[in-house]
Design goal:
By secondary structure, the chain is mainly α. The protein is built from 5 helices and 2 strands, in the order H-H-H-E-E-H-H. It has helices at 3-26, 29-33, 35-58, 68-82, 87-103, and strands at 59-60, 63-64. It has a two-stranded antiparallel sheet with strand order 1-2. Strand 1 (59-60) and strand 2 (63-64) form a beta hairpin. Helix 4 runs antiparallel to helix 5. The radius of gyration is 20 Å and the shape is flat. The model has no long low-confidence stretch (mean pLDDT 88).
């Protein structure tokens, strides 16, 4: 892939994102009054973010990579989020756990 092809992809992706956001503003307001659709709209970003996090936890490039240290670090971070720890503490706990496990000969 050349540099100009990369920029074309970036610009087209940006235009697509902008058009998708514009389509959200163009939706009739009465659609948002329906409770079922409103709850779906509110939960969709959470589901997408959770899916991205899980993919990053179990994939490495184009293949699955079950890395024990990474998965345990992910679990520690998930527990810290569940316990409502501050974000910086969640990151430090998860990264520190994964780093410490990578230093041990067990993994």
């Amino acid at each position: 892939m050349t540099a100009s092809t990369g920029w074309v992809i970036v610009l087209l992706s940006g235009a697509g994102c902008y058009l998708l956001k514009l389509a959200g503003y163009a939706m009739p307001q009465r659609w948002f009054a329906r409770p079922g659709l409103r709850s779906l709209i509110e939960l969709l970003p959470v589901a997408l973010l959770a899916a991205l996090i899980v993919v990053e936890a179990v994939a490495d490039g184009r293949r699955y990579d079950v890395n024990t240290a990474r998965l345990i670090g992910f679990g520690v971070g998930a527990i810290a989020v569940w316990r409502r720890a501050p974000f910086i503490l969640v990151v430090v706990l998860a990264a520190g756990t994964a780093a410490a496990l990578r230093l041990t000969p067990l993994t």
